[in-house]
Design a protein that fits this description.
The structure is a single chain. The protein is of the alpha/beta class and 321 residues long. It has two domains: 242 residues, Alpha/Beta hydrolase fold, catalytic domain (Rossmann fold, 3-Layer(aba) Sandwich); 70 residues, no CATH class. Helix content is 36%, strand content 18%. Strands 1-2-4-3-5-6-7-8 form an eight-stranded mixed β-sheet, with helices on both faces. The chain is globular. The chain starts with a strand and ends with a helix.
Length: 321
């Protein structure tokens, strides 16, 4: 089943992607827009910061095609053939999170306009941070009515709340292991709280934060993107989705980036939707099967099968649309 290379414009950026239409299907077919997770993640779900193939979005395209559903996936800004576009020469500090939502909106318009695509049967499926983009797109004025929304291992709390939790856990672990003096741990916690307050107040960051926070991305050049993404509360967006919209959420006990308790709270906010909740036991964050071992992140690029638990639940949800 071959992909067709396409390009589409979003603002000043030309994005490169792959359109897949199932073989042997006549007439207009339903279609899904696939949205990648955080960082420089390309149309296949591969990351420029991890050597090797992850392939989550390619796997989803394969699964959709097997169900008779076309798909569009693309190299998000900063990845693959798309690259940084005009931001390669301009101030990257001007790159806000809204740029990624705008790109998704333009991708959906492009998908709806493709030959053999049924523009009245469109889905949006986002993985990780892509699920936040998917919800922001679904509630945006002018977005076509969707027949389904997939939120796979989704960012389920505000970004800065999640980063605060993760950094506190790292600080506590280092403190407990005797690798970090108490005074420095307290300084890091205070500096982090101040940085979050500054981002939420006026989308700015000091340029003299402690190195551990700077290494975690708390640098002025990222301030606009961090503030704009944090302003999108997943649970608020969930409550704004159209009543009765079929929504699938997934989370796994082995996912080291997404907490199933957070996804459960997101599910509760999706009360007006037609919710299907898929709970996995042996998949990592990128939906690969890791059995009973602990995920470290390095397993994302291992040559592993994708989760049968997820595939079964996903196919069942698609069949019911």
């Amino acid at each position: 089943m071959a992909d067709t290379e396409i390009t589409f414009a979003s603002g000043d950026v030309t994005l490169h992607g792959s359109l897949r239409v199932p073989d042997g299907v006549s007439g207009p077919v339903p279609a899904a827009l696939l949205l990648a997770g955080s960082g420089p993640t390309d149309r296949n779900g591969d990351s420029a910061v991890l050597p090797g193939s992850i392939g989550t979005l390619r796997f989803l395209a394969d699964t959709l095609a097997g169900a008779g559903i076309a798909s569009l996936r693309y190299d998000k800004l900063g990845s693959g053939e798309t690259g940084l576009g005009p931001y390669a020469v301009e101030d990257v500090a001007g790159l806000g999170f809204s740029v990624f939502v705008d790109a998704a909106a333009d991708a959906l318009k492009n998908l709806a306009a493709q030959p053999d695509i049924d523009a009245d049967r469109l889905l949006v499926i986002g993985h990780s941070e892509g699920a936040l983009v998917a919800m922001a797109l679904a509630v945006r004025e002018g977005t076509p009515a969707l027949v389904g929304l997939g939120l796979l291992e989704p960012l389920a709390v505000r970004l800065l709340d999640l980063l605060t939790r993760q950094i506190h856990a790292q600080v506590d672990a280092a403190l407990g292991a005797g690798q970090l003096p108490l005074e420095l741990a307290d300084e890091l916690r205070t500096a982090l709280a101040d940085a979050v307050e500054s981002l939420r107040a006026d989308a700015t960051l000091s340029d003299d934060l402690p190195d551990p926070l700077r290494m975690a991305g708390f640098v002025p050049v990222n301030a606009k993107a961090l503030a704009e993404e944090d302003a999108l509360d997943p649970r608020v967006l969930a409550a704004q989705l159209p009543a009765g919209l079929p929504v699938l959420t997934s989370c796994s006990a082995r996912d080291i980036q997404v907490d199933c308790d957070d996804v459960a709270a997101l599910d509760a906010a999706l009360g007006a939707s037609a919710l299907t909740s898929v709970r996995l036991t042996t998949a990592n964050h990128v939906l690969k099967e890791i059995g009973e071992r602990t995920s470290t992140g390095a397993d994302y690029v291992e040559d592993l099968p994708f989760s049968a638990e997820f595939t079964t639940g996903f196919k069942s949800w698609l069949a019911g649309l």
